[in-house]
Amino acid sequence: MVILGETMQTFPVVDADPGIKRQVLADHADLMVVCFAFQAEGAEGKLHSHPHVQSTYVKTGRFRFSVDGTFFEVAAGDSFVIPSNAEHGCICLEPGELIDCFTPRRDDFL
Length: 110
Hints:
mainly beta; disordered N terminus; Jelly Rolls
């Protein structure tokens, strides 16, 4: 939900990839906060890249990430930054939620 003055905006929950739901939580031209809910072990955030700098906070669950060919595992409470244009993706090891921040905003998510 976004609160701007007296205006409230709620963004829809959408299917991102099989077994993954996405919802924009907050939006500004310079920054976007997005929740990715991985509903099952094995759900895959496919390898991709984008010009946005991304920070990821693991709210719940456990994941194996690949960032430019480097693999690592993260769990609830962990966070990291993905540089602009780095190829990255993940496999869900235990269902949970990732909270991603993008700068600038991901217009393709609106």
